[in-house]
């Protein structure tokens, strides 16, 4: 029985144009997650955030500063993965963030929120 290939842990020497594009999308997902989370917490309260660690940090440091700290850490870690050549892992993280984090926020703000009574 063969083990599943762990292709996303493969290290590549030089990033391709596609890898550079994915890294840019990764950075944008971090930025949009921070913006969406900020406005989500301001509109709906702290209960809208699903990650208890993020809630703890925002409760301790304030919503704005807490999110800046967390998103900066995410960008540093993602940049480190990209810099050492884990481009496939950055791709997996980017897809995860787009599907699990950014798209639900975008759906909430652009589809659900406009239909709510004022």
Regions with little confidence, pLDDT below 50 for 5+ residues: none
Rounded average pLDDT:
92
Percentage beta strand: under 5%
Reading the helices and strands in chain order gives HHHH
- What is the number of beta strands? 0
Counting helices, strands and paired strands, the structural category is: mainly alpha
**Cα distance, first to last residue?**
59 Å
What Rg is obtained from the alpha carbons, in whole angstroms?
17 Å
Number of helices: 4
Shape: globular
- Main β-sheet: number of strands, strand sense, barrel status? none
Helix content: over 70%
Name some characteristics of this structure.
single chain; mainly alpha; 118 residues
Folded structure, characterized:
This protein is mainly alpha-helical. 73% of the residues lie in helices and 0% in strands. It is built from 4 helices and no strands. The chain has helices at residues 17-44, 52-61, 63-84, 87-112. The longest helix has 28 residues, at 17-44.
How would you sum up this structure in a few lines?
By secondary structure, the protein is mainly alpha-helical.
List the helices and strands and how they pair.
Layout: H1 17-44, H2 52-61, H3 63-84, H4 87-112
Helix pairs in contact: 1-3, 1-4, 2-3
